[in-house]
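Researcher: I'd like a candidate sequence for this fold, 649 residues long. If you have to choose between options at a position, lean toward the conservative one.
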């Protein structure tokens, strides 16, 4: 928002305390109308801003190569999140995490501080990447080339990776740019050359700059890794990610759209903790979709573990997108912000379990630009311009203070990008690739004089239909390690858990990121053993697009069922009883987990009514109804009030 903190932004130049590294983002003086440089989707940066992209690769290599003992190095900044569980920049622990077997990183998860804490964290990373970008730009040969790169470097901001949008030009779901070992650039000598790709991995140099930075299990890795395979030590198999992600992208897209367009409350939108007040329409969260990306891209590599994920360069591309989604949402709901909550179990490096967290809680260890106190959520809530950037969707200054017009532009952009008109999306998915142009979409719109394409209009009388979501709730800590629940609609091979992520009838997953304590056995530490209900979590998977595809195809259902004909609950609930299924596997083994062993697990389906505006933008009813019969009486499903479930009642 352009309620810009001009004073603060200018004050950046006069940081006083030399010892405390101030988190400023890139010091920026906004233009006369409030304009600041844009963090762009990296494929946009690569295609349309090739000089900045070139600097990004060279700069990230420079940043990663910094001496790991330097507090502003890539290594040290990544180490704030989890391991090495040591003070960063002299900010010592103020919590009981060591005695209670808590989590030794500063990062906040399952907490109302989840989204705000990561904002200055990324700003700190970006201000140092920016410094590297300036350094490499200045190394080009004097003259035209150097002038060009120095000019491009000035407005450089880190790109992000939008993992939910349809990849441009039918590109890979997991961009090959993350997978290739080497990459072609124009080097600082002005020549074309191949360099190591800093987006593929970070090379530790050395692995343990200070004794014991990593425990034995993580000291095995000389670099960050994705999908390691026991048979070939040290080989990243990130080429498998694209297929896995492609299989779930439609569901991610629906999930992001649902969050941005239907969640109105900050606490519900941002973080994944569940309590008995949680509304059936609010089981999802930004943190929940964010967890899925850690799961899908990690494959038991660094991204899978909160304790080490920040060392993988992907973490930053991912979390900048998470920050972007928060910024977009916050500008749609400027009046909603966090309410005080007790910090979740267990303690972290700087927070004790049950300590109250609110908008004025210090975001430790991020010093504000005075270097004398920590940033708070309230101070960074309204404006990414505090840290000198905006996103393509949040250029509020373009609307001259007309907030109605600004919000309308956000809704329109979000609806398009995440294909929120499920009927148009279904038609698009059926069309051969060559015909899927925005032009034909526009023509279709003109012809039909309404948001729903004619062949599907009977499914949405008055442009209104019923939306369905799959909800899960479970103990976050009760399994002692991370696990995930897969949802399927239609037949799949139940006998092959390791392949469930590739099943064509997989609708999506909810990933429960347990706070691993570095692979030791104290992850539910504190004796006696913690009650699993101490930390409850929830997640959601939208079902409507998958149901719609079944209506259109008419041939994708389980034995004993009938093809689905409409989206009304009278038809959909019996269809779900026969065709909806769910399974769980552990992160660590990909082995099936007996659903009855997951403490406090409850799986349910909820629905609400949605009206599409003439522009095809969905408007969700606020009331959601639990469709109890859809999952009643099955393992993990809804139970009668009196029935006990597993060991829990
Ligand atoms: C990547 O570049 C290095 C040298 O920088 C070279 O040794 C290696 O063969 C290259 N790998 C590939 C796959 O091109
Ligand atoms: C680098 O290679 C690209 C094509 O791969 C070419 O267009 C460009 O002119 C080359 N630049 C230099 C400085 O050699
Ligand atoms: C890791 O690096 C060390 C030191 O350079 C080397 O001795 C070791 O072989 C490397 N391990 C692997 C798995 O690459
Ligand atoms: C942020 O916006 C809210 C709502 O418009 C306002 O009440 C609050 O004072 C703003 N905070 C800051 C730091 O500008
Ligand atoms: C703001 O924008 C809306 C929608 O674009 C428009 O209808 C309205 O007239 C504008 N308001 C002002 C004060 O310009
Ligand atoms: C559609 O809307 C009109 C007017 O709002 C109403 O009279 C009609 O009953 C609605 N039809 C259906 C099928 O809901
Ligand atoms: C953790 O417990 C398992 C089984 O109880 C055991 O095999 C493993 O060695 C233990 N690991 C550590 C680090 O103590
Ligand atoms: C686990 O906790 C026990 C008792 O608190 C402690 O003795 C042991 O060293 C811890 N193990 C690890 C791997 O941290």
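Model: Candidate sequence:
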């Amino acid at each position: 928002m352009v309620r810009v903190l001009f004073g603060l932004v200018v004050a950046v130049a006069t940081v006083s305390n030399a010892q405390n590294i101030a988190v400023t983002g890139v010091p920026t003086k906004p233009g006369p109308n409030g304009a600041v440089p844009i963090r762009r989707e990296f494929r946009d940066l690569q295609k349309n801003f090739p000089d900045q992209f070139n600097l990004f690769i060279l700069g990230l290599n420079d940043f990663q190569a910094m001496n790991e003992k330097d507090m502003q190095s890539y290594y040290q900044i990544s180490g704030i999140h989890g391991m090495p569980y040591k003070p960063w920049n002299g900010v010592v622990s103020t919590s009981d995490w060591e005695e209670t077997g808590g989590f030794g990183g500063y990062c906040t998860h399952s907490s109302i501080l989840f989204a705000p804490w990561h904002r200055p964290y990324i700003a700190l990373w970006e201000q140092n990447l920016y410094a590297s970008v300036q350094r490499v730009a200045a190394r080009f040969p004097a003259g035209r080339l150097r002038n060009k790169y120095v000019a491009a470097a000035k407005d450089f901001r880190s790109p992000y990776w939008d993992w939910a949008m349809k990849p441009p030009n039918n590109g890979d779901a997991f961009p090959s740019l993350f997978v290739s070992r080497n990459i072609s650039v124009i080097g600082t000598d002005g020549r074309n050359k191949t360099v190591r790709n800093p987006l593929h991995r970070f090379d530790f140099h050395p692995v343990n700059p200070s004794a014991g930075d990593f425990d034995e299990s993580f000291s095995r890795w000389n670099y960050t890794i994705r999908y390691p395979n026991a048979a070939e030590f040290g080989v990243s198999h990130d080429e498998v990610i694209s297929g896995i992600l492609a299989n779930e992208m439609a569901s991610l897209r629906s999930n992001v759209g649902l969050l941005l367009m239907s969640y109105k409350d900050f606490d519900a939108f941002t973080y994944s903790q569940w309590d008995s007040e949680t509304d059936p329409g609010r089981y999802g969260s930004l943190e929940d979709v964010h967890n899925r990306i850690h799961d899908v891209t990690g494959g038991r590599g660094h991204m899978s573990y909160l304790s080490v994920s920040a060392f993988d360069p992907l973490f930053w591309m991912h979390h900048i997108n998470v920050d972007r989604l928060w910024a977009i949402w916050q500008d749609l709901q400027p009046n909603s912000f966090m309410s005080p909550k007790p910090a979740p179990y267990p303690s972290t490096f700087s927070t004790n379990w049950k300590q109250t967290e609110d908008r004025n809680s210090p975001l430790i260890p991020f010093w504000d630009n005075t270097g004398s106190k920590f940033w708070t959520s309230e101070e960074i809530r309204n404006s990414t311009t505090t840290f000198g950037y905006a996103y393509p969707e949040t250029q509020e200054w373009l609307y001259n203070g007309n907030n109605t017009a600004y919000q309308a532009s956000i809704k329109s952009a979000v609806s398009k990008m995440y294909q929120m008109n499920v009927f148009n999306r279904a038609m698009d998915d059926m069309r051969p690739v060559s015909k899927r142009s925005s032009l034909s979409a526009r023509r279709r719109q003109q012809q039909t004089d309404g948001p729903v394409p004619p062949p599907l209009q009977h499914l949405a009388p008055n442009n209104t239909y019923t939306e369905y979501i799959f909800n899960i709730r479970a103990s976050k800590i009760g399994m002692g390690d991370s696990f995930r629940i897969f949802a399927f609609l239609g037949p799949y091979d139940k006998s092959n858990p390791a392949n469930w992520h590739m099943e064509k009838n997989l609708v999506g997953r909810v990933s429960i990121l347990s706070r691993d304590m570095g692979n030791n056995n104290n992850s539910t530490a504190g004796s006696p053993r913690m009650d699993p209900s101490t930390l409850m979590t929830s997640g959601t998977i939208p079902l409507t697009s998958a149901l719609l595809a079944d209506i259109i195809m008419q041939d994708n259902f389980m034995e004993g069922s009938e093809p689905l004909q409409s989206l009304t609950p009278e038809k959909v609930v019996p269809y779900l009883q026969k065709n909806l299924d769910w399974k769980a596997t552990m992160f660590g083994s990909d082995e099936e987990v007996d659903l009855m062993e997951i403490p406090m697990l409850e799986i349910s389906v909820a629905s609400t009514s949605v009206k599409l505006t003439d522009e095809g933008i969905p408007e969700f009813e606020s009331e959601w109804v639990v469709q109890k019969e859809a999952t009643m009486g099955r393992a993990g499903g809804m139970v009668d009030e009196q029935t006990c479930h597993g060991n829990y009642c």
